[in-house]
Amino acid sequence: MAKLAFLGLGVMGYPMARHLAKKGGHEVTVYNRTAARAARWVAECGGRSANSPREAAAGAEMVMMCVGNDDDVRSVVYGAEGALAGMAPGTILVDHTTASAALARELHASCRERGIGFVDAPVSGGQSGAENGQLSIMCGGEPADFERARPVLESYAKTCARIGGPGAGQLTKMVNQICIAGLLQGLAEGIAFAQRAGLDVEKVIGVISKGAAQSWQMDNRWQAMAEVKFDGFGFAVDWMRKDLAICLDEARRNGARLPVAALVDQFYAQVQARGGGRWDTSSLAHLLARD
After folding, report:
1. Could you tell me the residue ranges of all domains in the chain?
2. Which sequence positions are flagged as catalytic?
3. What pLDDT does 1 receive?
4. Regarding the domain delimited by 3-165, which CATH topology (the fold level of the hierarchy) does it fall under?
5. What would the DSSP string read from start to end of the chain?
6. Is the pLDDT of residue 287 over 80?
7. Above 70 in pLDDT, residue 232?
């Protein structure tokens, strides 16, 4: 059992922290900007809540965080009430936020100055993966820091791997999002084509999902696309556009060409214009649906 802190109890962080307490058996202190949500977590899972990241991190062997973007990460890490102010040398900070690789390298350097380990560890698997403890965790950082963190992270992981040095986890998550964007657009177009051709979409998917076209997105998102229903589940368009912006910004730096990702990002902008910012990413089908 370890003494841990978890910062950020959103749709991903809430169940991840719960797995640490209930499956891992760890002593967990949580912090959330909305204190009522932290109080609800404590009532459900035990442990305790803190009034600031610094208070949550004080005495913790590891501090995990899962917040919104680069600015959110900096707001909970730095400053007089930030996590680093409460962490002792020899502890480890783990960032599960999908953020920039530049931020990961910055955090690694800031932690190293204080004798603190750092692992950038974005996740894939969505809300269902977090709820079921079946996330894929892609990590960057020093080998020794990763090996110390891995047994704890396995509380909510299906797979947890170190890809390389600081920032490698975030870069790998960018690859993940680039691939998903193309898969979702292809699936949306395929289903729209099948419908206009007068085919039974369920039968079509039943066949092609057993062949080379199969993917997690096909298995889990085809029905929402066919029914044009995108509320109440999954990964929001607003979040996907945030992630694609990170990918496109990194590509401008490293010279990679991302024509499909850039196009799909614009399609998502059209979905947002239709009021679908909180719809699931399968809502690309909304742009192709029959009137």
Report:
1. 3-165, 171-287
2. 173
3. 79
4. Rossmann fold (3.40.50)
5. --EEEEE--STTHHHHHHHHHHTS--EEEEE-SSHHHHHHHHHHH-SEE-SSHHHHHTT-SEEEE--SSHHHHHHHHSSTTSHHHHPPTT-EEEE-S---HHHHHHHHHHHHHTT-EEEE--EESHHHHHHHT-EEEEEEE-HHHHHHHHHHHGGGEEEEEEEESTTHHHHHHHHHHHHHHHHHHHHHHHHHHHHHTT--HHHHHHHHTTTTT--HHHHHHHHHHHHT---SSS-BHHHHHHHHHHHHHHHHHHT---HHHHHHHHHHHHHHHTT-TTSBGGGGGGGTS--
6. yes
7. no
